[in-house]
Amino acid sequence: MNSQNEPSFPQPLSEKYRPQSIAEFIGLDKQKKVLGAFARRPVACAWMFLGPSGVGKSTMALALAKELNAELHHIPSQKCTVGEIDDVVRMCWRAPYRLFGADAGKADWHVVLVDEADQMSAAAQLALLSKLDSTAAPPQTIFIFTANDTGRLEPRFLSRTRVLEFSSYGMRSEIAALLAQVWEKETGAPGTLNWERIAKESNTNVRDALQTLEIELLAV
Fold first, then answer.
1. Do 151 and 195 lie in a common domain?
2. Are 158 and 206 in a shared domain?
3. Is 1 part of a structural domain of the chain?
4. Same domain, 148 and 181
5. How far is CA 214 from CA 27, 38, 58, 161, 202, in A?
6. Are 142 and 214 in a shared domain?
7. What is the CATH number of the domain that holds 69?
8. Which of 63, 78, 166, 168 has its CA 20 to 30 A from that of 18?
């Protein structure tokens, strides 16, 4: 527990301005349309959010879980082992329940989010096969996997997911506009930086662009 004399550190911009709902994302028009429609009429299934780092795959998964009123089971990158899969799926056989936040209480769904699924072992992928189809699928459960590419994924595993590709193509202007808005919110005044250049040099990676902006703000 922090004492009153200990300094409090500011929240990183990538966390402070993380979208909380599907509609809040910049760009990703197709993804927002698809997942918005799914959130209105959800079914038990598995998704694969596929695309480069920093484009918003995991954040979109969290926003979807929130809109589904789901209990979230998050398996971080490279932690998706056979034992972890069995433990999480076992929890999904009970009624979903949200433990924290203003929405704590009975939930409608379980959402299992597996980050960087392309780093899973072959054994972990095989362990998931029956759990992603009707033979042993837990009830009221939606799986969401994120991956940068499919090179290390078993075709049998991949065939059991709905693949939704994420791309930052064409988002440079929208990222630049976001940077300008964040700057003004943080400083109270319009900025004079070249927002388009920052967006370009970040390879249209929203997280990297916001990290660059943090450095510029420290120099003010």
1. no
2. no
3. no
4. no
5. 22, 35, 22, 37, 13
6. no
7. 3.40.50.300
8. 78
Q: What is the spatial distance between Cα 12 and Cα 182, in angstroms, rounded to a whole number?
A: 12
Residue 110 sits in the same domain as residue 148? yes
Residue 142 has pLDDT above 90, yes or no: yes
Q: Which residue has the tokens 């949200």?
A: 98
Which is nearest to 142 in space by CA: 120, 123, 164? 164
d(CA 212, CA 4): 31
| 78, part of any domain | yes
C-alpha pair distances (Å), 167 with each of 44, 184, 202, 206: 25, 27, 14, 11
- Model pLDDT for residues 3-37, shown as the tens digit of each residue: 454 444 578 898 999 999 999 999 899 999 999 99
Question: DSSP letters along the chain, please?
Answer: ---TTSPPPPPPHHHHT---SGGG-SS-HHHHHHHHHHHHS--S-EEEEE--TTSSHHHHHHHHHHHTTEEEEEE-TT---HHHHHHHHHHTTSPPEE-SSTT-EE-SEEEEEETTGGGS-HHHHHHHHGGGSTTTPPTTEEEEEEES-STTS-HHHHTTSEEEE---TT-HHHHHHHHHHHHHHHHSS---S-HHHHHHHTTT-HHHHHHHHHHHHHT-
112 and 212: one domain? no
Give the range of the structural domain holding residue 118, as residue numbers without chain letter. Answer: 16-165
- Let me know: does 207 contact 54? Beta carbons within 8 Å: yes
- High-pLDDT (> 90) share of the chain, %: 71
